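Changelog note: in this version the structure field was regenerated for every chain. One regenerated record is shown below for reference.
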Amino acid sequence: MKKTYLTLVFIAVLVLSGCLNTKSSVEEEKANDGVTESGSAVEIEVLGMASSEDDLNIVRDQLEKNGFTVKLNIQPDYGSFTSQKEAGNYDIAHSSWTTVTGNPDYAVRALFKTDGANSIMSDEEVDKLIDQASTETPEEFASTYQALEQRLVFDKAYIAPLYNSFKAQGVNKEVLNEETVRLAKSRAVAWETIDFNDSSKRESTPLVTQQAIGALTSLDPIKGNDGSINTLNTNMYVRLVNLTDDDVVTSDGSLSLNHVIAEGNAAYYFLLRDDINFAKITDGAAEDTGERVGADDVIFSLKRASTADSVPDHRTYSLHEHIEDAELVTDVAELESAKQSIGEGTIKEALEQDLDVKISELVADKNDANNQEGKYQVVKVTTSKPFPQVLNYLAHQSAGIVSKKQVESINTYDVASFDPTKDVPYGDQNTVTEGGQYDNHLYASGPYILNSKNDYEATFLKNPAYMPGTEYEANISTVTVRFIQDPDSALSALRNGEIHLFNGVPETKYDVVESDEKLFLQKNDSNAVAYLLFNTKNREVSDSENLRKAILHSINQDEIISFYQNNKKKATSTVSPLVDTGNELKADPAKVKEYLKKYREEK
């Protein structure tokens, strides 16, 4: 009896002192923070995919804690998510971006510049800062990106950052030689280096990997820039340069033997190799077309990449609009007279570095090139202004080299009157999809070519004419890419031996991979940032900067990082992994109330 009495007294004291809140009082306090003058809470619709449901639930809880009413619009896949986004059915959309070129210009240009390929906003000051930073060296551009980030996030609240991810993949080390599997900070997974522990299986056994998205945007490299095709096109089309695993621009494994920047930082020279031919699919087999990948293909590819109306639905123009010209150099005297931008010496000396045979002749016809005899092709790329970051863009999948002859033979339609119901463009996924529409017209310049796909998987075959006999020749003859949207399902497939490589292991599952004796977890920093993108049309958040700022300051990154067991890092924008701006977003309920009050006064 005495024990019961003391308990009741203790509860009474807590109630009277205000230390114990009832469920109704908590809900009332939350609601009062976000009500409008009409008495209703501010409703926010959050759009995202099922694969990001954890993030969406955390964001919902944080917004509701600050008094908002949240409606989650969760779509099952990327296609339906995109449809909802294009229809404007959201206030904020869960978005993510990986700077696969390793340079900060790429982290902002397509996303936030007016008319950027993935931009839904227009701000003259943002445009100005993006352009200014692009002309600057790393020593100069930190302050410019700091100012850009300040306006983008804090002054105008166009986005609300969530986190910067690590990059991780699980490798079945019983099947694959883990030392041959690369995990680069920026570039997509390179398949050609991967090998089995038992190399005798190269011809008979496919490498099986996965990706979440099965609906492919386009296999024309300039018509897609998303998770559905970045890895696929990276392995299908060679580029003038590559990125190392630490984001350094290199000629290794690319179409150029060497490259150099000319004095003034507006002209770039590339010495082409002569041992790559295009591949095609014939009766389900990869075949050497006999057509060499040469300067005419490079010039054609870069000019169409840098021309806005070269194709309908050009999605990567903003990455290449700075290219003013791409041309063939046939006069050795030009290489001998032009100076290098960095260091001493001529362009010719730089291009000849480490060559077995020096340049004796520059040829116009790609079929006349013979590197062993000193006959080379050189392509010169000129930018409209000094733009050192151009090399990073030339390492991107959208700068993949396509066959001039083949693309022109397929794209016979008029761009202005293109009809997607009738016209079949180069790279249309329907042409490689099993069924009545299958008519594979792809010409691949890279180590692999896509043979066919269905809703379940895509099959790639080794290009037999890609640097044969060199260290860059692909090891494994067949690569199968399974479409597995759910990360838990992909992890189960890896553990069960159904796939050999899982790129994108969730942070909450690192311990599962590390505890499995069959598996090896590769980890690296990444340039991947998740953020919330505000709708800029026909919504209250579109018109009210104060409402956007109230949402912005509701985001608590510490809580998100804790949920992911400290396997995420803080971010302020998509620039965060590349430039230390010193900016930081901090959750601030007081600011939420302040901006909500200002928002109510607007109404």
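Spot check on this record: The chain is about 30% helix and 20% strand. Residues 110 and 116 are 4 Å apart (CA to CA).
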